[in-house]
Amino acid sequence: MDDPAGGTLRADFEVEHDPAAPQDQGTGQIWAGSADNVTAGTQAVVNVPTGTLTDGWQVRWRARAVASSAASAWSAWQNVTIRTSGQPAAEPLARTVGPVLRTDQAFTISAWLRWNDKDGDYTVVEQKGTSKAPFRLGNDPEHGLVFTFTSDDSTSAISEGIVSEVEPPVNEWFHLVGTYDDVAKKVALYLNGEFVKESPISFTPWNAPTAMTLGTSMQGQLDDVQLFQDVLWPEHISTLAGKSEVKPTQKQENRSQPNKSSSPKILGDKAEPARVDWNFCTNLWGSDPGIKPVLAMSNFSACHTNQILNKYKVKQNKVKVTRGIQSVTLGVVANTYQNSRSVDVELHFWDIYKWGETAENPITLQVTPVGHPAQSNCALAPDSPTSSLLVTRTPVAWDADPVLKYRFSSPSTGTDSTFKISTCRVAIRMSFVSPAGTTHIERDGPIESYRCDTWTKNNWYKKGGCSFSRLAAILLLSRKDKDEKSGVTWPEQVDHIEKALTAPNTTIPKLGGPTYPESAGKSKDIPGLWNVEHSKMLHRLFDETDSEDNYEKSVKTCRDEIAKTWNADRKNHPDTAVNCDEFPMASTREGSYFARPPWNYSVQLINAVQNQTWGRKLKAWYRNHRVLPGDPFSISIVH
Questions:
Q1: Cα gap 331→293, rounded to integer Å
Q2: What's the whole-model pTM score?
Q3: Relative to the CA of 244, which of 201, 358, 552, 566 has its CA 20 to 30 Å away?
Q4: What is the DSSP letter of 158?
Q5: How many CA atoms lie within 13 A of 545 on its CB side?
Q6: pLDDT in tens, 122-167
């Protein structure tokens, strides 16, 4: 997709039955959907919901680009035959027009799969060159799940990476993730949110600027493919798999729900996020050092730990014997800010275990900032408390002075014209030495990743701001929420959202009801609830026209299934006036107009004053959390 003016676009897609197909396959439109926040000059990808298409159908599809003030003509129809089962197909399930990922940079691929054969020779996603593909995520008949890379685009290329020897689940949905870290030159594989294996690669992967195929060669079903030009945290991967380990901060006596203080308040207007510091984190974790879960005040403030271990071994009588150990528990506290494109990172040598011949040898910590789209988009700030990116100390010296504090800046230089997005990744590595001090052994630590933007529509924070690119914002709701200026609360709004998330089958439109009689015997799975297995996040819409489409469909459902008319005059009748409220919200791409299946949403008549006050507060929350169009977020109800 391209736009001579640059910027960000929406891609609309339509799928319908091929008029030349057998009549028993059906006629007319099958599905319509959109991809938001598509950068001009790149390709758009959408996933047709599972169950929408049937194996063997002959269908056709078309697309168009939509900008803020204009839309292109629809493309010519493209014909395709659907393949959802059987032997690995000669053709993939889907193909993009051009490349989606830079395969020589860090990336993550996430997909839900359902296979009926554990011994299949499958490739899930591919971006192939002339002779080879830079990577392969899939399954090997002899070795199970694999995520491998090739050294170059030639028939003689070598292959390295992960051959897991782990069989894939069969006849059930499972979640598969592969990550490539271009700083550490390592690949990792995750199954159902759990770490499977990690492997280094000796070469630098190459980039294939070609179309990407989804379901490249496989037997079974594929859903919810997500691609990231970054390395996701294990905690984020667990969230994608429905097993979230990322915990908004919470009271120690109740760790099952986020605390109301765990993000910028939805009350009022502008609000700075609450912050974590080292004492706060260790009080929640306890005094025993070790690997701890991520504690996130919001998508602006978080802390976590990482253990970095080195064992010095020598051969004695053909047997390797451990002669020395050094192990560091490294704590990381990071904070980002509104009206500042800077990031503060604190590194704490929380605990050092030492033993044997290497006990007192020096330990070097190296910090490497990596910027995008250019290296200058992640630089050590002039006012950084620590000025050296390479620090060497003995264990005794680290114990005496265990903290390094850095500030990195991520200016908007060279970024896109709409959001001015840059990324700043901070890689941490430690170096240990042998007893003689001659051999240096490097061990990789964590990689922190941040996104900075300056969106002109967020005029509260004109200088921009940064947030954690791997932590989706969480919207905390309570029946006690109140607008501090007017005193208005919105319990009916909260009750409707909670009902839609926790008891969706009891909501309107009714299953089997007048709007969707075909839904009889079916169910709803409305997305958005935080920390529930297999829940899916909400995403902010890009185009306000789409928000109007959501609203109009929801109002029609209210009229068809609740009441033909209602009193909406909140000025003269504030206690009795009502509005048709919808969930997911009209400002999300999961709203009623885009719902799949089409009945997967909820409407309810609620107090108009509450509804409209809440709508203003939601807009404030988007601004305070730097939730851009296309960004994911979830909801937690606090009792």
A1: 11
A2: 0.65
A3: 201
A4: -
A5: 11
A6: 999 999 998 899 999 999 988 999 999 999 999 889 999 999 999 9
